[in-house]
Amino acid sequence: MIRAALIWLLTALPALAASEDIVAGLSQNRVSITADFDGSEILIYGAVKRTAPAPEGALHVIITVEGPSRALTVRKKERTAGIWINREAVQIASAPSFYAISTTGHLRDILTETENLRHQITIPRAIRAVGISQQAQNAPEFLEALIRVREAEDRYRLRERSVHFTEATLFRADVVLPANLTEGLYRVRIFLTRDGQVVDRIERQINVRKEGLERFLFNMSRDQPLIYGLLSLLIAVGAGYGASAAFRFIKR
Amino acid sequence: MQIFLPIADLSVNLFLLLGIGGVVGFLSGLFGVGGGFLITPLLFFIGIPPAIAVATGANQVVASSVSGVLAQVKRKAVDFPMGFVLLAGGLVGSALGVWVFARLTAAGQVDLFVQLSYVLFLGLIGLTMFWESVVALRRVNRPGAPIRRSHTHNWIHGLPFKMKFRASGLYISVLPPLAVGALVGFLAAIMGVGGGFIMVPAMIYLLGMPTKVVIGTSLFQIIFVTAFTTVMHAVTANTVDMMLAVLLILGGVIGAQFGAQVSGRLKAEQLRILLSLLVLGVAVKIAADLLLRPSELYTITPGLLP
C-alpha cells in the first residue's frame, strides 16, 4: 500500500509540475508610431492554470520584453596627446535595441544560473558577444559599458518585484515602451519559475510599426531617395521664398 | 508637445526644434553664414545621431540661405558673377572632400578629424576676425589715424585671367576666387557645413570684397553647396529627416528674415566682431569637449567596424 502510494507520487509529481500552465494576454499586440508618438504602455496580464493543487515552493513570474537586435560597435575613449579620442573598439555580434525585465522577486532567488543560460533571460545573457576577449584588453568592461549606457537611455531595464501576483494565480505587469522605439517585432516572454526552475514559458509578439506620415516618409526615403532628397530641397526653397515674400507683404 | 522623427527614430519636443531653427536662422540672416556650424552641434546636443544631424542641417541651411539671399538681392548686395566663380571652385572642392571623408570613415577617426577641423578653422578665423574688427573699431573712434584702403594692391592682382566683378568693384583674376571656393567646398564636405564662416572672411581679407556684398554673395553660393550636400546624403545614406528639417526650416526662415533686418542696421565692424565672438565660442566649446575628460568614456555605434 505504502509502496503503491510512493510509486504513484513519483510518477505523478513531474506530471503535476508540468500541469501548471500560463495563460496570458497583452493589452495590445501592435504599437503604431505616429507623428505624436511619445511612448506607449503595454499591460501584460495572465493566470496560472492548474489541473491539480499547487506543489510546494513559491511560484514566481519573470516577464521580458525584447526589441529587435542588431550588431554594435562599442568604442572607448583614451587620453592621447592631451585629447580624448576613440582608441579600442569591441564589436558586439547582436544586442537588443530594447530589453525590459519585470519579475515578482529578486532574480538571483527565483532563477538558477543554469536556467538563465538555457533561456537567456538576464540582460548580459540577452546580448550575444562571442569572441570579444580577443578584441580588447578589458573586453568585459565594454559589455558593462554597453549595458550602463543603455540603462541610462532607459533602453535596458531590470524591474525586480514589479509584477503583481495575486494568490499565486493572477499576475499583471505594466511595461512602458519609451519614445525612442526601434521599429520591428518585439518579443514578450513570460516564464513561470518554482525553486529557480522554469516550469512553463510562453511567447507573444508586439508589432511596432510606423504609421501614417511617418510610414510614408520612411518608405519614400528608402525606396525613392532621389525624389525624397529633391522634395526636401523643394520644401526648403519654397519655405525660404515663402518667408521672404510674406515679410515683404507685412512690411508694406 | 512631442513629435516623432521618422528617420532619426526618436521623439523630440516640437518647440525646442522650432526654437533651434529660429535662433540659427536669425544668426544666419544677421551674419550671412548658413548656420551649419551652429545647427549641427546643437542637434548633436539634443541627441540626434550625427549623420542625420549633418544631412538635415544642410537641408535647413538651404532654406535659411534662400530666405536670406532674397532679402540681399533686393538690396543689390549679391555679386552674381563672383558667386558663380566661387561655386565652380566649390563643387570641385566638395567632390574632393567627399572622397577624403570616405577614406577617414574607413580609418575610423572621422569624428576626431571633424572636431579638430572645427577647432582649428573656427579658432583661427574667429581670432583673425576679432583682431581685425577691434583694430578697425579703434580707427573709427580715433579720427585722423591713417585709413587702410578697402583693397590694397598685392601679388593677387598680378595673376592672369582677370575678370570684372562690377557689384564688388573689383578687377581681379578668377584664380583666387576659384581657390577660395574650392577650399571652402572641401571643408564644407568634411565638416558638414555650408562654409559661410570661412567664405565671409576669405572674401573680405583675401579677395578684398566690400562687406556690403560679401554676405549676399556668400549666401548665394552656400545655397548650391548645401543643396548638393542634401541630395547626396539623401541618396547615399538616407540620412535626411524631412520631419526634422521642416520644423527647423519653419523656425529658421522666420529667424533669417529678422536677422537680415537687424543686419541692415548694424555697422560692418560691429557685425564682424559679433560673428567672431560667436565663432570663437563654438571653437572653445568643441575644444573643451576634446580636452576635458568625458563623463562616459564609451560610445555605442550601430553596425560593425568596416
From TrEMBL, chain A:
Membrane-crossing segments per the record: 226-250
Signal peptide: 1-17
Keyword annotations of the record: Membrane, Signal, Transmembrane, Transmembrane helix
Top-rank lineage group of the source organism: Bacteria
Protein's UniProt name: Transmembrane protein
One of the Pfam families matching this protein, by short name: Alph_Pro_TM
Species whose genome carries this gene: Pseudotabrizicola sediminis
Automatic annotation (TrEMBL), chain B:
Keyword Phosphoprotein: no
Coiled coil ranges: none
Source species, domain of life: Bacteria
Positions of transmembrane segments: 12-39, 83-106, 112-131, 170-193, 213-235, 242-260, 272-292
Record InterPro entries: TM_pro_TauE-like (IPR002781), TSUP/Inactive_protease-like (IPR051598)
Localisation: Cell membrane; Membrane
Keywords: Cell membrane, Membrane, Transmembrane, Transmembrane helix
Predominant place of localization: membrane
Topological type in the membrane: Multi-pass membrane protein
Family: Belongs to the 4-toluene sulfonate uptake permease (TSUP) (TC 2.A.102) family.
Protein name, per record: Probable membrane transporter protein
